[in-house]
Structures are given as structure tokens and as C-alpha cells.
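Q: For a teaching handout, I want to show students what a protein-ligand complex looks like in C-alpha cell form. Below are the inputs, and the small molecule is heme C. Please produce the holo structure.
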Amino acid sequence: MTEQRDNQVRSREYPDPHEMNKPVPPAVIAIVAGLLLWAVSYIVSTGRDDDPTLGDRRTVATLEGKVKGAVSTANGADLYAANCVACHQASGAGLAGAFPPLAGSEWVAGPDNILANILLHGITGRLTVRGATYNGAMPSFKDKFDDREIAAVLSHIRANFGNTAPQVSANVVQRERAASKARTTPWNGDDELAKLK
Ligand code: HEC
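A: Here is the structure, written as C-alpha cells, with heme C included.
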């Protein structure tokens, strides 16, 4: 009896669904193939204008293009944050006994040709800043920065930390770089820098 009812129940069930033979429409294949062709030809035909050797060291100044002599404090701020804060601090106050302050410094406000030379070649030996004597090592930036970048970072330190000296032009940096081309060592503190005046 139960067996009979079971069979009745089974015979009322729907058959299992199964996949139908429906191939992808040719139109869809054509569209996908067309897109693929276009994508490949796009990659091949698009010229790359960013030099991969620049890597992560590219600065805003590099990406903005080579505008001769242009100075922007925005670049200077970026360059300062990336290259100077470790020693001279974000506030420009330096670290007593180790790194001299840029805030209120007579070197920052002084002649722009000397300032350009400080960045180009660096300094070692005794250096007097705001009455205190330092004897550290300021690195050279002549290979790292171009004239425009040195001008931008110098203009930045001259317009910040309470300093109000005029901007430094890239032409001054270019002139000083050419004049001191043969130099391979840092300036020897007060003694040598004083002679540049
Ligand atoms: C590794 C640490 C270090 C870094 C990085 C550094 N400096 Fe210096 N800087 C010094 C030291 C040390 C002196 C003093 C040198 C001496 O005692 O002979 C100095 C001196 C100076 C001076 C002259 C003295 C003064 O305080 O005004 C200026 C201007 C200056 N640095 C600007 C910069 C700028 C701009 C940058 C970034 C592009 C920079 N420095 C990066 C360590 C550094």
C-alpha cells in the first residue's frame, strides 16, 4: 500500500532540469573579439611619456614639465619636506648643537649666491649661525636637484619659518653651478663661505 502511494508521488514529480544546447550567439563573440582587438591595439599604439627610470623619486617639479626659471613655493615645500626636515626640522628650528636653524638664519637671509653654493656643495667644519657654532656636515645637493629645484627649495626657506627674504632665481643657481663646476668637496664652514661674498 505505502509502496503504491510512493510510486504515485514519484510519478508526479517534474524531471530534473538539464542544460540545453544553446551556443553563445555569434554577435556576442564578435563584440568580445572586437573589444579585445581594440584593447590590445590601444596598449600597443599609446606612447608612454613617463620615463620609468625616474621611479618614485619624481617630484612635482619633474611632472610639471620644464618651465625655465619658474619658481613655485609649492614645489619648494615638497622638496623641503622630502630632503631637509630630517635635519633642519619641519619648523626650520634645527636641533641645538647638531643642526643649525634656518629660521632667522643670517645665511638664509644673506647673499643668494652663497645660499646657492651651500645647497650645491654642502658644508663641513665650523659654521656660525645666530651666534652659535656648529661643526656638522651639510650634504651636497648638486646631483640630486636641478637649478630650478634648488631655487624652489631656497625660495621656500626664505619665505617660511618667519623669514621674509626675496625668492632665489634659478639663473643664480645656474651661474653658481657653472662657476664652481670643478668643485668636488663641501665648503669648509665660515672660512670658505665668507670668501664667496
Ligand atoms: C644630514 C643633515 C642635513 C640635511 C639633510 C640638510 N642639512 Fe642643511 N645643514 C646641516 C648641517 C649639519 C649644517 C651646518 C654645517 C656645518 O656645521 O658645517 C647645515 C647648514 C645649512 C645651511 C646654512 C646654515 C643655516 O642654518 O642657515 C642652510 C641654509 C641649509 N643647511 C639648508 C638646507 C636645506 C635647504 C636642506 C634640504 C634641501 C638641507 N639643508 C638639508 C645638515 C643638513
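A: Two things your students might notice: Residues 42 and 48 are 12 Å apart (CA to CA). The beta strands are 123-124, 127-129, 132-134, 137-138, 187-188.
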